[in-house]
Here is the input.
Amino acid sequence: MQIAIGSDHAGYSLKEILKVHLKDLGHETSDLGTFSEESVDYPIYAEKVGIAVSSGSADFGVLVCGTGIGVSIAANKVKGVRAGVVHDTTSARLAREHNNANIVCFGARLVGVEVAKDALESFLSSNFLGGRHERRIEEITEMERNG
Ligand code: RB5
Here is the structure.
C-alpha cells in the first residue's frame, strides 16, 4: 500500500522508525516531513498527510507528534479524513474496524517504539466491519457536508 507519513519535531524519531518498519512490511511510503528535530508546528504536517489521504494519493496516513492529539485534531479538519490516536494493537484494530480510520496517530512521548510498530501493523491489517458502523460513519460525513 501507499502510506503517507508525517510528524512534528517531537514525533520525528518515531516517524523515522515507523517509516523503516513500513518499508520492511513491503509498503511504499511518502515522507511529508518534518525532517529534523528542529521545532515546527504540527498542523502543517497533519494537513499534508490529510490531503494526501483525502486526495487518494495515499491509501492511509501515519502521523506522529508528542501525544498524537495535536496531529489528530488538525488532520480531522481535512475533508474525508478520519484520524484517530491509538495506544496499542487493540485501539489500532478498532480504529479500522469500527471507525474506518484512514490516518493513525501516535504520541511519541507516550507509546514505546515496539508497541507503536505492532499497533501500526494491527491498523494496516484490519478492515472496516461496516454494518451498524457504516451508518455512524455516514453521519460523520454528513456533518462534514453541513460544515
Ligand atoms: C510539541 O511540543 C507538542 O506540543 C506536540 O508534539 C504535540 O504533542 C501536540 O499535540
Notes: The chain has a mean pLDDT of 98. Helices lie at 12-24, 42-54, 69-75, 89-97, 113-125, 132-146. Residues 2-146 form a domain with the Ribose 5-phosphate Isomerase B; Chain: A, fold (CATH 3.40.1400.10). Residues 8 and 40 are 6 Å apart (CA to CA).
